Amino acid sequence: MSTTSTAPHAGGPGPDVGPDGHDARGGRLGRIVRSPLGWMLTGMVGVGVVSGLTATGPGPVPALGAVAAVAVYWLVMRRLARRATPEIARRGAGREALLGGAIGLGFVAVSALLITAFGGYSFSWAGHGFMAVVWSAVMVQIGAAVTEELMFRGLALQALEQRWGSRAAIVITGLFFGIAHLGTPGANAWSALAIALEAGVMLGAAFLWRRNIWFVVGLHFAWNTTEQLLGIPVSGHASEGLFTVDVHGSTVLSGGGFGLEAALVPVVIGTLLAFRMFVLARRGGRLLPRRSARRTQTG
After folding, report:
1. Which residues span the membrane (predicted)?
2. Model pTM?
3. φ, ψ at 185 (rounded to 5°)
4. 248 Rama class: left (phi>0) / alpha (psi -120 to 50) / beta
5. Domain boundaries, the chain
């Protein structure tokens, strides 16, 4: 780490002055909010406020909230973190979202099929208006997927891996993701652990593999939307779907009132997927080791 004098420099900008002519230090508060934990918390508060104001709004309000959340994220990353944002680039966004969506759809479909085959679920047509139900599910889940991924993978995971490396970051954000779902209906210690493994860790591994928010948004969106349309509670939240589901047998098989995420089958599948994506991320050189993270902070 280089040291600089605190005395003013004559004859031009000193080393603490940025290219725009402003003080690059910004004082103690500026240094705090520009640190990884500082911009992480600032961004999470900003995106969280947007989510809180729009998540349960009517019609397209949740989707519009997602657009606003992306703008908040971009602003925090560019102004506070002072970094580019290739992870939210528009180029290739559709392809990444579709790839993630295919994995999310397959994950839920295979899990639900296996649980049904083992006698845990039976489905019947709900008889609700098809378009109204699909429109509502899509709008709500777009908002949820975008805001949660911006907070947990875009902000928290990237900030924590700058300090402690990718491995520590994926463990911490995975655990925090599980704990954050303890307040949902029907939640308990097992459901929190299940969410941490199959969702927190898997979505973290998915981001490390692709380094693209739209990939994990597509995965998250397809996962939640498929569950909702099947009539399965999404993390304890029961919403109107195209089907109604009758639950049979033990909660280990079906997930009980919390829904599919607390069932053993998707936990096993999600953990295997997470392991595979983490291996792909490591092979692709996309992991930040702890020593590199320290150099990022001190160099």
Report:
1. 37-55, 61-77, 98-123, 129-152, 164-183, 189-209, 221-238, 258-281
2. 0.87
3. -60, 135
4. beta
5. 92-284
